[in-house]
Description:
The chain has helices at 2-5, 40-56, 60-79, 83-91, 93-110, 112-125, 132-135, 138-156, 189-194, 203-229, 234-245, 251-283; strands at residues 8-11, 14-17. With 284 residues, it is mainly alpha-helical. Helix 5 packs across helix 6 and helix 8 (138-156) packs across helix 10. The mean pLDDT is 83.
Amino acid sequence: xxxxxxxxxxxxxxxxxxxxxxxxxxxxxxxxxxxxxxxxxxxxxxxxxxxxxxxxxxxxxxxxxxxxxxxxxxxxxxxxxxxxxxxxxxxxxxxxxxxxxxxxxxxxxxxxxxxxxxxxxxxxxxxxxxxxxxxxxxxxxxxxxxxxxxxxxxxxxxxxxxxxxxxxxxxxxxxxxxxxxxxxxxxxxxxxxxxxxxxxxxxxxxxxxxxxxxxxxxxxxxxxxxxxxxxxxxxxxxxxxxxxxxxxxxxxxxxxxxxxxxxxxxxxxxxxxxxxxxxxxxxx
Length: 284
């Protein structure tokens, strides 16, 4: 509707579609056929929604999801013992890579926003660069500086390390890498004026600051749980994306992501129950 009507939003001086934040879950619709959600309409809606979002509303996490989709597909096919489509996937891998590179070039030429976010993702992953942090674009650099400053905070106040500083816990720019100049879109103006920051970005930073070592342990526990169980339920994958990457980002994404994660827990438990009953019948 936004595209057809010409009523657009704006981000950094660029036109964007007026859509809810939940569009960031759209790429997971492309995996529905692998989980026996065989609705062709949902699959095609996922393709159209993904293309429009990449052009008009791209962000680093959205691009990372697409980069990880082939890996997820490979693991799902392997665990489900679907060796023929897996073999076909490997056979056509060179062609897929060529198509992927061409698509990336097309999107980069058509969308300034996509090109900008792609460069941020690439810069974030170039950790072998000796000037990795200093040449990194501002958005991912701020997130890494936050983590460094949280470590400094606990080094100076180790009694907070185990349980964290609680919600609304704050840090200051111990590293000095944030500078003193206000950076729009990073923290609120009041945080900058006060020199203390609480609205940190990324799930890991939030859990580390608010919940300390327990928060970090929970984060890695969830990584393990999602890796072990995401092939059993697509909702584990969707909810896992929320808890690992966008926890606390927005109310709408939290409502959808938390619901998906709880549904995934239920489906995994049901999957385990059916498996155990089948094993019990076999033993009898």
